[in-house]
Write a structure and sequence with these properties.
With 277 residues, the protein is mainly alpha-helical. The chain is 75% helix and 1% strand. The chain has a two-stranded parallel ribbon with strand order 1-2. Helix 5 runs parallel beside helix 7 and helix 6 runs antiparallel to helix 11 (227-247).
């Protein structure tokens, strides 16, 4: 039965695997280069419609929650704007190509998997891509405006005027957006740990108190230290924990059944022994 579920492709030697890895890496690099070149010529759209949109007071998050902000950026170095253009384009190319990169990784490991394992792995990669983009959206649409609104209005003294550089703003955007894209992969990681038996659904349910504490600490780290921002950031993190509980496997009562079976067998043997005596 196990042999029937294996992929029917021919056996590959070490050099065949190495060549497949080289070709996969080459295709991923080509995809990144193509995406970079295409996005490089959409500078106005990338910056005016996406990257710099949270700095304007008409951004939808500020209108929804009645916030007032208007971040004015300055450039103080000669080559910064060109280098920022390159960095932002590369980040966007990486985000766009993420599903294809995951597909190439899956295609490389697929020949070593059983057919049922291929289906599970394919779903896992799709789930990981969805959560990555969901984390990008949460970081961009919610967390980034909260950080801008807080830090732009925070002053140690009225005599100190905030003058935010373009380079500082772009670094904040990149770190915030990518951080949440990675953080939202937690359910995928916990599901993988569950498949290999390290954790179960009951483990996560039993540790919900520690999870609440960890979520509160994490929300305080990644957002400004005000209650509203922490609450807004904690909500998606709590939902992630709930999703992790759903995707993890239940604990199988195999050990309990084995113990009960052993007890029953011992009782039956004792009865037989008494009867023969």
């Amino acid at each position: 039965m196990a042999e029937e579920e294996l992929d029917e492709s021919k056996d590959m030697s070490f050099w065949d695997h190495l060549e497949a890895l080289r070709q996969g890496l080459f295709r991923m690099v080509i995809a990144l280069v193509v995406a970079f070149v295409v996005l490089f010529f959409f500078k106005d759209f990338l910056f005016d419609k996406l990257i710099l949109a949270p700095t304007r007071p008409d951004f939808f998050f500020y209108r929804w929650f009645g916030m007032e902000t208007g971040l004015q950026l300055v450039n103080i170095e000669l080559s910064t704007q060109f280098m920022v253009h390159m960095r932002v384009t590369m980040m966007c190319a990486l985000i766009v190509c993420c599903p294809y990169i995951l597909f190439e990784i899956w295609r490389f490991i697929a020949p070593a998997l059983y057919k049922r394992e291929k289906r599970a792995t394919r779903r896992a990669f799709f789930f990981a891509s969805f959560l990555f983009y969901l984390g990008i959206a949460v970081g961009y649409c919610i967390i980034l405006p909260l950080m801008i609104n807080f830090f732009d209005g925070y002053k140690v003294s009225e005599s100190v005027i905030n003058t935010i550089s373009l380079n500082s703003y772009i670094s904040t955007v990149n770190s915030t957006v990518l951080l949440f894209g990675i953080v939202f992969e937690i359910p995928t990681l916990l599901a993988a740990l569950s498949q290999i038996g390290l954790i179960t659904r009951q483990t996560l349910i039993g540790g919900w108190k520690w999870a609440v504490l960890l979520i509160a600490v994490l929300a305080a780290i990644i957002t400004p230290a005000d209650p509203f921002s922490m609450l807004i950031a904690a909500i998606p993190l709590a939902l992630l924990y709930g999703i992790s509980i759903l995707v993890c496997r239940k604990e199988k009562p195999d050990e309990d059944e084995d113990e009960s079976d052993d007890g029953e067998d011992a009782a039956v043997a004792a009865e037989k022994k008494e009867a023969t005596a």
